Amino acid sequence: MSDPHSVQHDGDAPTTRIPRIETPGEPDPDTAPIAEAGREEDPDRMPTLMEQMGGVPGIIASSVPVAVFVVVNLIGGLRAGLIAALVAGVAVLVWRLVRRDPIQPAISGLLGVGVCALVARQTGEARGFYLPGLLYSAFLGLAALVSMVVKWPLAGVIWHGINSRGMQWRQEPALLRAYTLATGIWAFVFAARVVIQGLLYDANAETWLGVARLAMGYPLLALAVVATVLIVRRAERAPRP
């Protein structure tokens, strides 16, 4: 048996075999690739709803063209607002492509602004740009009310869909009540949009309609999100029977 510390001669080039001393905590180079592969993300894992939407930046990006139209229309008129909105939609799409971010939100925003621009062009009125949004809010409000009646409140479905937690929460009365209350808040938000913006639409008050669209957009949604989080967290922390 050869001594691991012995010197071996291969021709004229002596070589010395020195046993490797492992440092505590240092990964073994022979097994490190296997360990790294084990820590990689599971390729079969389904992306959550929030990931499919591109996260918070994706949600904001999908609404940029609408915000641009609201501002430019107030300043430069309908034609300038439509052009600016479409340009903004294309710019957001290109920006996300360059960053290699999910482009689904940008495509959704571009399609949405395209529909709104088409309606506005057909009607020849700037208020036509807001009509699809009003109809969409009415649909969401009605869907929220129906979900409460059938005891599948949308707040719970969406919340657990974003976090991929499943639908076991429906078996807990406290959580079901909490999500029903949160869904009622969202139904109120959509109803408020339909009522206030609908009255401004009927009055042909395009300037105030644009202001209401901005004011009842992210600020009102942010309040609804905060209320939902507080209600749900309180219900989740409550002691279970």
Shape: globular
Distance between the termini: 70 Å
In angstroms, what is the radius of gyration?
29 Å
What percent of residues adopt helix (DSSP H or I)? Answer: 55-70%
| SSE ordering | EEHHHHHHHHHH
Largest sheet: 2 strands, antiparallel
Q: Which sequence of strands runs across the widest sheet?
A: 1-2
Keywords: Membrane, Transmembrane, Transmembrane helix
Biased composition (Basic and acidic residues): 1-12
Organism: Pseudonocardia parietis
Transmembrane segments: 55-75, 81-98, 105-122, 134-162, 174-196, 208-232
Give descriptors for this structure.
two-stranded antiparallel ribbon; 241 residues; 2 domains; mainly alpha; single chain; 10 helices; 2 strands
